[in-house]
Amino acid sequence: MAAKQNDAGSILDRITDLPVRKSRGRLKIFVGYAPGVGKTCAMLSDAHEEQKEGIDIVVGYIKHYARPYTAALLEGLELLPYIKISNKESSTKEFDLDQALQRSPDLILLDDLAHTNAAGCRHKKRYQDVEELLRAGIHVYTTMNVQQIESLTDIVYSITGISVDERIPDSVFDSADQVELVDIEPDDLIGRLNRGKIYPEEENTQAHLFTKEKLTTLREIALRNTASQLNRIAEQISEQAKRNEFDTKEHILVCLSSAASNKKVIRTAARMAAAFHGHFTALFVETPEARELTSKNKAELRENLRLAEQMGAQIATMYGDDIPGQIAEYVKTSCVSKIVLGRSPYKRRGLAKSNVSDKLTALLPNIEIYIIPYTQSSFYKRLPFYEKYPLLSLADTIKTIAILAVCTIIGLWFKYLEFREANIITVYILGVLLNAIVTKGRMYSAIYSVMSVLVFNYFFTEPYYSLQAYDSGYPVTFLVMLAASFMTSTLTMRVREQARQSAQKAYRTEVLLETSRKLQQAKDSPAIINEMAHQMVKLLDRMVIFYSVDQGVLLAPQFFPKKESAVDPGVYTGGNERAVAEWVYKNNKRAGATTDTFFGAKCLYHAVRGGEQVLAVAAIVMDEEEPLEVFENSLMLAMLGECALALEKEKLNERQQEISMQIQQEQLRASLLRSISHDLRTPLTSISGNAGILLGNPEVLNEEQKKGLYTDIYDDSMWLINLVENLLSISRIEGGTLNLNFQAELMEEVISEALLHVNRNSVKHVIQTELDDELMMARMDSRLIVQVLINMIDNAIKYTQDGSHITISARRERHIVIVEISDDGPGISSEEVKVRLFEMFYTADNIHGDGRRGLGLGLSLCKSIVNAHGGTIGVKDNIPKGTVFYFTLQAEEVNVHE
């Protein structure tokens, strides 16, 4: 990220401002079997035809070697300016991906799909630029030669003797929407070369490729692969049939190693998987020896792993020291049908003649095993002795000397007791076991074994206190003792190593299970990310940074440092790093350190994806840290998958709650419309009918009849006014726009004010007030509490018989005032009705009530007002009969000095 990315702010702006399209672009590849067949010209000719149809076309990058006929075809096409990448040694011109995305044409032309970009570009390879263009919805025309397909590398090398350095994964070629083979006779192509129409003379470095035999073979390969790709495109028409076919597919397994020649094995397995239309899995068995690999071998292993991923393999890892046994176990549990292995032609030295393939044949007699020969004689090149043991540990050296001294003292005691020499030898062998347990490294066990033999010879063989031995059998005893010591120490070290492996595996498994449990218990998205980040720090022992996503925007980073870390987190969230996180979010791809995209970044960025949607971006700090191990990487991906599921579940729950709320609101609206349309029709009809009678026949009505009609109109209009007031009050309270004016008020005055506005039918009932204290005061908004009392008293008047007794009482208990409205009516017998009385639009089915006025807003409004005052409201039975409605308010002290 050097030359091009010197301005952090501009990079972040360019990433953030990139246009986003939902539909994916289409890819057309012009394929040739050798340079000079006319791929670029064919692409430019097609572009001119598309331009005539009104397609917006831009030339992104064309390498034409100053050929006049190629330059002529560029006329009339818009050329996108190149970006100049300057390094210490030289400068080069490259395709400007960001400018192409900003320009956002319908179609862009790019030469040389397998090109390797200069250091400083976002991606290492041009095909990665193409993938980003396609994700942005831009169609791409591009060119390549058939020998640049990854799986054909070894075949092409065997034909031409030329190693192709610039290659593309098979998946890129297979994903093309259209493939066009640009063909020419080999003789004509050779003629072009001789006339200087392919390369300038100073750049003609591949002249030995242009022989008729080689070109004919390459042409055959190109025809066959193009036909296969066209067949794959045709098969995609019936997607359902293709899905049904998956159930009977072959399952190809390839075994990964750190050998450079393992790439050939991977490519062969990939071709087999493509030929059989089968599943493809790459298995790596991590053994204790993997810790002793050289840095070169570790880098080679990572390259092989990346190649397997590019070839479409699913990566699996297992841990143990028995490679054939681990492979056999995986094969049995994963329904593998074919295994592809590599084997050196060199014979093994030593006693062990069998190899992995022979053991697998014995363990899996019914599985087909394919052996791919290679030239490298060993999978592992272990660290040299001076690197494995650079310095002797003082602590382990003291332990070794102490154990040897203790064993010698015990041996001298046994000698004093006249025990046999075999007992003394057993003591030293026990010392070997103890030394192997308490020290680190096999070298201490080896040193102890040799020293124990020398000490035994010095103290316990004649002549004593010398390294000579008179008895002819002593040398054999020494050799047996030394061999037993070595074997014992080796077995002890192996057991300890297996214990360490088991503990490490158990720890990682525990972290994974603990992660799943904690994510399930997390209550919301921030808690999920917090738990996930802490588990990743626990697993990887590295700083982790999370970028949450809210409404399509990447939020500020959250830092989760490892224990005792003094590093400033801001170093890893600057403009460049933020730009990588933005790119990962927009493209749903990993990027950063150890990848081919933004490979100069200090962190490795992964998208936490739920399907095609990115739910968060996780960054693992890799600056000056070793790359992740294969097993660690697999566990981390599994944990991120768990995190994605948890975040997706949380979003689904939120969406479900929104839907439930919308359903409730819709039900509420429907109930409101239904209730209003039903309950308003009767009073409005009464008002309009009575008014019509008064207007049409005033002379035939006496004064008493007119007064009755006036009274009915008044009652119905007041009912409508109260209904509207209740609706407005409820909407203000629920919307939070009602301003409460709390003051200390006398309960007697509030109750008296409410009785002035109750239903006129109150004269048919006996209403009385009972107060424990005439000066009782409560903290309230008197206007709203008056409305509560009116609704409750009207409710008692409505649902009780004429002549019933209604009592309004108030009493104080400690810091609250309890207000009760009791009656001696028929009461409410159903407990279910009591529970639902305060729900909006609910009305009790009572024959004494006025059915036309059953909208059910009064008690719901009372509950909202009382709750806003911090009180409680309820209903209970009145003994011996009737109902009691009650609510509470905060009591206030009377100031007698006012």
Describe the structure.
By secondary structure, the protein is of the alpha/beta class. Helix content is 48%, strand content 16%. The strands form 5 sheets. Strands 19, 20, 21, 22, 23, 24 and 25 form a 7-stranded mixed sheet that branches. It has a 6-stranded parallel sheet with strand order 3-2-6-7-1-8, sandwiched between helices. A 5-stranded parallel sheet has the order 11-10-9-12-13, with helices on both faces. Strand 9, helix 11 and strand 10 form a beta-alpha-beta unit. Helix 17 packs antiparallel against helix 18. The N terminus is likely disordered.
Helix tally equals 28
N-to-C CA distance? 79 Å
Low-confidence stretches: 1-8, 240-247, 345-353, 385-390, 846-852
Fraction of residues in H or I helices: 40-55%
Number of strands: 25
What is the averaged pLDDT score? 79
Q: Helix- and strand-based class?
A: alpha/beta
- Computed CA radius of gyration, to the nearest angstrom: 44 Å
Strand content: 15-25%
| Molecular shape | flat
The largest sheet, given as strand count, sense and whether it forms a barrel, is:
7 strands, mixed
InterPro entries: GAF-like_dom_sf, HATPase_C_sf, HATPase_dom, His_kinase_dom, HisK_dim/P_dom, HisK_dim/P_sf, Histidine_kinase_KdpD, KdpD_sf
Transmembrane segments: 391-416, 422-438, 445-461, 473-495
Keywords: ATP-binding, Kinase, Membrane, Nucleotide-binding, Phosphoprotein, Transferase, Transmembrane, Transmembrane helix, Two-component regulatory system
EC number: 2.7.13.3
